[in-house]
Amino acid sequence: MTTTSLSLTELLAALGAPERVTALKGIRRGIERECLRITPEGTLSQTDHPKSLGSALTHANITTDYSESLLEFITPATDSIESLIEQLGDIHRHTIHHLGDERIWPLSMPCFVGDEESIRLAQYGSSNIGRMKTLYRQGLKNRYGSLMQVIAGVHFNFSMPDSFWCEWQDLVGEGCCSQRFISDKYMGLIRNVYRFGWLVPYLFGASPAICDSFLKGRKSSLPFQKTGKGTLYLPYATALRLSDLGYTNSAQAGLKISHDNLPAYVSSLRRAINTHDPEFAKIGVKVNGEYRQLNDNVLQLENELYAPIRPKRTPRSGEKPSDALEQRGIEYIELRTVDVNPFTPFGIEVDQIRFFDLFLVWCLLRPSPVLTDEEVARNRRNQNKVVLEGRRPGLELEDEQGNPIGLKEFGLKLFDELDQVAELLDRCCGRNRYRETLAMHREKLLNPELTYSARLLKQLLESGQDNGCFGDELASRYREQMLAGELEYWDEAYFAGEARDSLAKQRERERGDSLSFDDFLADYFGTRQTTV
């Protein structure tokens, strides 16, 4: 039997057999939640990352992203949804106790931002790797501006257990423990996310409005309407964070990163990293002794690829992500199209996680042929329509054959397939939680007013509030809740130890550098000239 001979229904039936179904237990998940630190007045914090939280360079759970004020909370991978939420909650609770009177901004699109120069680059100390991380962000600023870099999202990390892979490989005659098989199937998952990923911003997009300070007086081609004193919105938008205003592939549309298989992906990614870009060359790399970017290539590093989903392998110390993928295959995938959920203090809730389980297992098991150029363009059109006008009555997308189809009709067809996966996961877990989750989100297809974006916009319009006032109120409420809450998974001794150890690790790295920064970069990018 070969993998291509099994339809989704047949594969689900085979995996659902009593002797196989328990192999699905142990799905592992991790969360990376980004959030801005803001002042009590609702403006971007100008303070340093609190030293009492530890080192942003080496802390396991609390770091920063682009800006010094853009926190990133990272949970370890776990196979328990309940533990995952407890860990994420504890990181929030611990952090808020070390922010003084600052708050955590509860929306994806940023608060009021004054001059772009007020967006401070994240600092990681004086070690070569720390300086490289800051320089990479300097390059992003010079290439794209700083505003895009203070948009926040939630990244959902996902992997299937070894027991599942063994059963699937045995089922199709592939033996066991083949990393090539695992990587091939994860790449198929990624292709299906490109096909059907518009469901994520439709259901969970929560950025239909922006502060007008985000445009900085620039004209936009989008037909914005205005509410309050300074809020711009699109009446049917779901996730402006994923539009051309935010993190999109518009600046990288010509890269043509291949998702045919892992070797093709790594090869095309490396090509982008090593391809000279004339526009970025105009910025300069090192001018008058000061670096402006890491290099003048299309991508400075792998992380500069703004993709909705990425294959991942945890790199070893000093190892490039692409080298880790090439040498050891895909370990997990990272879904990156999730807005911060403003209706929960932690930016994501349990029912979302269960839906992502369902959606990603379905994308994994569903047949996933190689994407054609025509299909790539069609998928991009569907995504753009949904983020800008996903709740518009009668909105039409394009189906897999390129035919017009109503969003609701398309979504309900996909939910019929998702229901089969929910049944399988419920049979594995012995409960009906996945089917209950699916039923809840199906209602959002039937009634768009139940989506996060509709709920948020309704509140703004009915109250006449700016999104800044709305965000400030939530930030203050959540701050009080977190200050009053108790740690659930870890204790203070854990966080105190992690802060202490992370600062010691940073000092050790700073003492251990033996190369100049120039030689360190040359070594990293393989351009250092050696003498014999």
From TrEMBL:
Keywords, alphabetical: ATP-binding, Glutathione biosynthesis, Ligase, Nucleotide-binding
Gene3D superfamilies: 3.30.590.20
Pathway annotation: Sulfur metabolism; glutathione biosynthesis; glutathione from L-cysteine and L-glutamate: step 1/2
Pfam family, one: Glu_cys_ligase
Catalytic activity: L-cysteine + L-glutamate + ATP = gamma-L-glutamyl-L-cysteine + ADP + phosphate + H(+)
Coiled-coil spans in chain: none
Family in the record: Belongs to the glutamate--cysteine ligase type 1 family. Type 1 subfamily.
HAMAP family: Glu_cys_ligase
Protein name: Glutamate--cysteine ligase
Highest classification ranks of the organism: Bacteria, Pseudomonadati, Pseudomonadota, Gammaproteobacteria, Aeromonadales
